[in-house]
Amino acid sequence: MKQNISIKTYLQKFFKNLYLIFLYRPFIDKKSSARGVNICLQVSLWVFVLAYFVIFIQDVPKPLSELKTFYGKMGKMSFDSKSSLGTMIFILDDNSYKKISIYKDKKDIYDKVINKKVKIYTRSDKLLPDFIAQLEDMDGNIYIKYNFDTQIEKHNSLLKFNNFILFMIFFTIFLIFIVNRKDNKQSPHNPQKI
Fold it and tell me: pLDDT tens digits for 119-149?
């Protein structure tokens, strides 16, 4: 005679098994035989998930005509000694200020146009502040050139890398499942409370 299992009972067993495999055995049960492996897998899973979402929310590069444009003078620059980035105070035509991120390796270019009236195009991402994409003076001399095709290639390579990260997320979940599924003797003392 077949025993009818209700959906509620099935879901309770399903979520209990998820709890046992992904939380109890890796973190709570101190007797688990592969606790170190479990913790390494769980940490790598969260690193992969974080990297996936950081890359996923990157903006698609825009052509030069769609970037933000500012007119003004380049003011004070400051660089972090431990980073390749810095900050520049850009003095706009209406005497307001805007902070813009700059690269340390282009400092000699910025020094050429400091306190001169320039036109800058900025690009920004959801996570990063505005960066100088193109820098030119009012005579039309371009000091930093924006290359839209290169930006598209970089973005496409990031998306390909993101596909690899997605594969690694699923592979890590699979490994966590394999490491913990046969460990039935390691179930909690009172499974009814789960």
Answer: 999 887 666 678 888 889 888 889 989 999 9
The CA R_g of the chain, rounded to the nearest whole Å, is 27
Rounded Cα gap, residues 191 and 194, in angstroms: 5
Read off the pTM: 0.64
b/e map 129-167, b = 16+ CB within 10 Å: ebbbbbbbeeeeeebbebeeeebeeeeeeeeeebeebee
Which three-class secondary structure string do you get for 18-36?
HHHHHHHHHHHCCCCCCHH
Instruction: Report d(CA 164, CA 141) in Å as an integer.
Output: 42
Q: Interior CA angle at 78 toward 81 and 121, to 5°?
A: 120
Closest to 176 (Cα-Cα) out of 15, 46, 55 = 46
Going by DSSP bridges, is the β-strand pair 68-79/85-92 parallel, antiparallel, or unpaired?
antiparallel
